[in-house]
Amino acid sequence: MSLPGHYFTYEDYKLMPEDKRCEIIEGDLLMTPSPTFRHQAIQAYLITRLFSFVQENDLGRVVAAPMDVILSPENVVQPDVLFIAKERLEIINQTGGIHGAPDLAVEILAPSTASRDQVLKRKLYGRFGVREFWIVDPDTHTVEILMPVGNSFETWQRFTVGQSLASPLLPGLSIQLGDIFKV
Fold this sequence. Notes:
It is a single chain. The mean pLDDT is 91. This protein is an alpha+beta fold. 30% of the residues are buried. Strands 3-6-9-10-11-12 form a 6-stranded mixed sheet, sandwiched between helices. A 4-stranded mixed sheet has the order 5-4-8-7, with helices on one face. The chain has a two-stranded antiparallel ribbon with strand order 1-2. Helices cover 23% and strands 34% of the residues. It has a single domain, classed as tt1808, chain A.
């Protein structure tokens, strides 16, 4: 849901109730319902695997939504999972979200947000410098890893059940696709 005719910024966003799930994309306030159990189970699995890998290798920080990522005053998003490399930890504001593009953004598709994730956020993440973008599709049991090309993204690889996900950004990470979708 968006509120047409209004132009929102991060300052407006900070006034929203904390129990509401919303994002601002190009000044439009977009609200979404709570995620499904399946979505949350997939998110929990990915956050656990990524967190363990990143901690064991002292690579940076991993967090899950809800976490505000302020790309600009009129673009505030909440990737389902995000990673920030050790050398860029200064973009984390301990009391106010992430101020800048994460190195990795993961979006788990849902009927209410699939178009936003695959079109709007893909463009935003490309424009603001996300280094790797994963699109996790619970319906097709696939994970598509996209890499930046200019200010856009191109598919690097699409993983399906039976394959192990590997990440160019996180060498050595290996996740069995079948395990992600066991719900």
